[in-house]
Design brief:
single chain; alpha/beta; seven-stranded mixed beta sheet; globular
Length: about 260
């Protein structure tokens, strides 16, 4: 009788396992059906969203968006077709060229200023930067900066006049940031009191130059992770930055 009892136990165990396997199979099929149903609902939702976007685009309610190295720019094609192209030394000729082209810029859309320069007159750079700020305020238009290949010295002063979110560089661009330089010989002649006054005048020029320089650096680094003390220190010699480095430090919005 013992072997027969053992045989019954084995049969019951086998039946239990079969029942569990069937339950597991039904549960798996239920999960698969649920996943497929969710996928269908998701596809329908995406399809409806796509149709909505397409209808908005056709009606003109939705404008296309363009991205440059992850940064979104309204009306992106303007980056490829700058309104004002400046090339060469930052001097009187560049200033007059900038003014002539600025007066011809159409209203009601973003303005892109392209610049390639090895530097030049610091005060002319400040004047062009001033005109950019005044034009932004006067017209209400968005001004975008596009630096190409090299933007050195006073060229960076011009770039600083554009909001950080509106600054772009081509991938090959190198920036050079440094403080104002002077190469000047002073000749003292006459009375000592006259010589003292000449020295005071020269010192006043130097102090004003340093103040203006620091104001420009503060404007340049606004919104970036570059601190004032850091840029003051680096600018005492020469700070070269690639486009990638400028982007990583938050000095520009994107790379073209």
């Amino acid at each position: 009788m013992q072997p027969r009892k053992h045989s019954c136990q084995i049969a019951r165990t086998s039946n239990a396992r079969t029942a569990n396997a069937r339950k597991s199979s039904v549960s798996s099929r239920t999960r698969i059906v649920s996943v497929r149903a969710a996928a269908v609902r998701n596809r329908r939702s995406v399809g409806n969203a796509d149709r909505t976007l397409w209808n908005e685009f056709r009606s003109g309610a939705l404008k296309p968006r363009f991205f440059v190295s992850g940064a979104e720019m309204p009306d992106g094609p303007h980056l490829a077709k700058p309104d004002i192209c400046l090339y060469g030394s930052v001097d009187d000729a560049m200033f007059h060229d900038f003014q002539d082209k600025l007066n011809k810029v159409p209203e009601g859309r973003p303005v892109v200023v392209e610049l390639m320069t090895f530097g030049g007159d610091a005060d002319v750079g400040r004047r062009i930067a001033l005109e950019v700020r005044l034009a932004r305020k006067r017209t209400g238009q968005d001004f975008f900066f596009l630096g190409k290949t090299v933007v050195y010295s006073s060229g960076v002063t011009i770039m600083a006049a554009f909001p950080r979110a509106n600054r772009y560089l081509t991938r090959d661009t190198v920036l050079l940031i440094h403080g104002r330089r002077m190469d000047k010989h002073i000749h003292f002649t006459g009375s000592l009191s006259t010589s003292i006054q000449i020295a005071k005048d020269m010192l006043a020029q130097l102090e004003i130059g340093v103040r203006l320089e620091r104001e420009g650096f503060v404007e340049l680094i606004a919104g970036s992770d570059v601190g004032e003390e850091e840029i003051f220190r680096l600018a005492e010699t020469s700070w070269y930055l690639s486009a990638e480095e400028a982007l990583s430090r938050g000095l520009i919005a994107g790379i073209l």
